[in-house]
Amino acid sequence: MLNATSKSNKEQVNLTSSLTVDGEPQLRTEPISSTEDYGIQLPDWLKTCILKVPPGLGDSCPRDSEALIANAFDLAFRLHKGQFRASGDPYIVHPVAVADLLQEIGAGPTVIAAGLLHDAIEDTDLTLEQLQSFFGNEVAGLVEGVTKLGGIHVTNRTEAQAENLRKMFLAMASDIRVVLVKLADRLHNMRTLDSLQSDKQQRIALETREIYAPLANRLGIGRFKWELEDLAFKLLEPDSYREIQQEVVTKRSEREKRLDKTIELLRTKLLAAGLTEYEINGRPKHLFGIWGKMERQQKEFHEIYDIAALRIIVPNLETCYRALAVVHDTFRPIPGRFKDYIGLPKPNGYQSLHTAVIGRHRPIEVQIRTPEMHQVAEFGIAAHWKYKEGGSPASGNTERFNWLRQLVEWQQEGGNDDHNDYLASIKEDLFDEEVFVFTPKGDVVGLRKGSTAIDFAYRIHSEVGNHCHGTRINDRLCPLSTSLCNGDFVEILTNKTAHPSLDWLNFVATPTARNRIRQWYKKSHRDETIDRGKSLLERDLGRKGFDALLRSQAMQKVAERCNVKSIDDLLAALGFGAITLQQVLNRLREEIRLQNISPEIHPTNSDVAKHFSSQAGSIPSKRSILNSSPILGIEGLDYRLGGCCSPLPGEEILGTVALGNHGITVHRENCVNLNSIPNSRRLPVKWNQSSYLQDQKFTTQLRIEVIDRVGILKDILLRLSDSGINVSDARVKTAFGKPACIDLRIELKDAEQLKNTMRQIRSMADVIDIARTGLN
């Protein structure tokens, strides 16, 4: 539950007098003649339930579905009476809205009752035992599962998010209906965020877009996904949201007129082909989807053709393909845009035929599906199961939720300390997969694009990955690093004596596989990695006083700053490569300075403080590590400056892990090539501000458009020479009647010098324009 409640009005109800008679649980026992007594607007379906409940059902667990919902509402109303949301509305409005959303997606009465009571244990003095006595174990279990998701206190935001998500996925594994209530809760809270402070709105919206909307998509609940994305989009990119919204409204009449003509033509063709039972309508794209396509394809609004699409719903599977034939016969199909999600469903169960055709002078997207497929597309897991007493939907669909099982297994096997890795794995598993391959038995497995046999093995099971020693792809032996393609049949060869190799980290594409490999090495080589980390530190700090240094409070603080619990964990992480030697030395140097400035902080560590003082100068000078590289954050690693943007000192930079064995590539933060690189491959880096940079030169390239005259290149080179700037390459392109284009590769010391140089050249009379380009 989001903290949208006014704390001053969050009074807890005394259950002893209002809900018990002679100490026994007691629900409402008298009929209701009018729902107006509640003083709030209720949906019609809830009014019907309340008015139908006869007296006498309140003294035991209600079994009738209408009685269950009516009693749940009445209890929630009494429990939350006197409580108000930050908006000023009575608090009961929120549980009712959550229940209404659950009813819309077809959830059963047990889930709806849990939606009405989902805040009761957390925000009132109702106990779990009392709730069980009122409504039985199933409703109480769902409410308890939702309550647990928000009941944790942690020390930092990353850990908070990771811990809450761990709890969510554990609850989902036991009964996936818990997350239906949580998603409905989040959707209504997103609708009513206006009363919260701006920074809190931004945080909640970002979490919604990164976790909850993809989670709704992973469970197939399109009805929730689209609205969650649009509400988050409205808060996170308000200018873009308003711009696209205005564009959609402005073009609506033109778009509807074009769609009506297309629909009428299709109706005629479908009837002519003997298809009389069908439903066809236009489907507008949601705003976040339009914006996402504009960003991915770098296009303007008017260049996006599928702002709206056609959806054809036909009675059965056979008529889906017959309707597709009619569409392709009526309009020209666009090559490469046909997708058969019926024969190859998405991991969340989504099925439909997708195609794009040229219709009435413009491309248009068409979807074809049956009513059952449409229900699944809109309502996801709620359309798959009929919820029964004592039944759990999660238990019958283990293959569909294989990703959920793996996340739970990982956290149970000790992955809890790696908060960043855990968040990366969750985000990876929640978003759409792009490559679909088959097991030897013909089962479909979805993976991200670029995945290898190792990624496939770990998706099947961690033990399959840990003992993998070979693979057959389409009945051919292939290297483990082979990238998988759509439709491949993949067989993993295992051996009990085989184990993961650190080389696999160079080519695996999924965080799940990467984390499993690291986790195996951490467990199986802990003593070895501790010794390796200890040797690395000792080599740079020297043996004198080293043991005392390891046991010092300063070293413990270094461990804490590196997000590990103990000094042994720090040494293991250093030996394993999870943190770099330079990171440890930098933090240790800061602790040494702290000791020198404020010796009273650790008065009991006088011997260690003396050692710190004696070592203070030697730590950075052992191999001049601090001053040996112009880039901080990747010391000791192979790196290169990106030729696409040729960064210079003084500019904000970001490191990326190159695929293969090509080390680290450093880009400018605004480099367009960063858009295609996932966050899991990005590293925070910065320029070394030490004197080391004063003697360094960095190459960049300029493109100068000039009036074509004799001697113009000489004049530019003379001006650069006067400024002490070396030109390593110069090329001139000319065309009759057009300006000349000069490409110069020059060596500069920083961004300020580049700025001055470009200003000098631009001031020349014959220069039309000058721009910075990537290195050829």
TrEMBL record:
Gene3D superfamilies, per database record? 3.10.20.30, 3.30.70.260, Beta Polymerase, domain 2, Hypothetical protein af1432
Q: What is its EC number?
A: 2.7.6.5, 3.1.7.2
Q: Please give the InterPro entries that the UniProt record associates with this protein.
A: ACT-like_dom_sf, ACT_dom, Beta-grasp_dom_sf, HD/PDEase_dom, HD_domain, NT_sf, RelA/Spo_fam, RelA/SpoT_AH_RIS
Cellular component, GO annotation: plasma membrane
Which SUPFAM superfamilies does this entry report, sorted A to Z? ACT-like, HD-domain/PDEase-like, Nucleotidyltransferase, TGS-like
Q: Which family does it belong to?
A: Belongs to the relA/spoT family.
Q: What is this protein called?
A: Guanosine-3',5'-bis(Diphosphate) 3'-diphosphatase, (PpGpp)ase
Q: Which organism is it from?
A: Prochlorococcus marinus (strain MIT 9211)
The root-end lineage is: Bacteria, Bacillati, Cyanobacteriota, Cyanophyceae, Synechococcales
Tell me the name of the encoding gene.
spoT
